[in-house]
Structure prediction request, 202 residues.
Amino acid sequence: MKKLFREVPYIAILRGIQSEEVLEYAQVLVNLNFPVIEVPLNSPDPLESIELLARNYRNRVVIGAGTVINERDVVEVYHAGGKIIVMPHCNETIVALSKQMGMYCVAGVSTISEAFTALQAGADMLKFFPASSLNPQLIKDWQTVLPEETMIFPVGGITPVNMDPFWKLGASGFGLGSALYKAGLGLGPFKKNAEAFIKALS
Prediction:
């Protein structure tokens, strides 16, 4: 999975996006080489948005769902064309089902015990969540005991200006939420936000 994030190590989270506008916002991300677009399931008509994205961009970006909290969600996202499941928590059953259905799975963790549980269940990556409430030093501490190839993505409160401590302590990338997109944000400001995150990589 590291190859997926080689150029742009971001998951774009479009929480609150409307299905009728999702394609034009996604096009901005595709043009900037964002590798993953996540539509949280507490957005309006999320499965419709995922289906539209999968139909139009499946060959250019990995599409999937966030805020996945039960097995039914996994099945519905799969049938909508989603390829990645992102959870706010660590649930072994959801991880296992996602992998059985051939999807990537990112499990939400905030402790080392949850991190090991997620990896042992088959999670592809760890969502360090909520990053705004966790000490970045934890990432470095966890890496002394986690498998060397473990990918850790801080999510929650991430902005272009506060990523540096996480990078320095070993983060693999980031999930970008409200600093990238929030419901009702215009296309122009959204593009500026996306470009600011790309600039922050240089």
The chain has a mean pLDDT of 97. The chain is about 35% helix and 15% strand. The two ends are 22 Å apart (CA to CA).
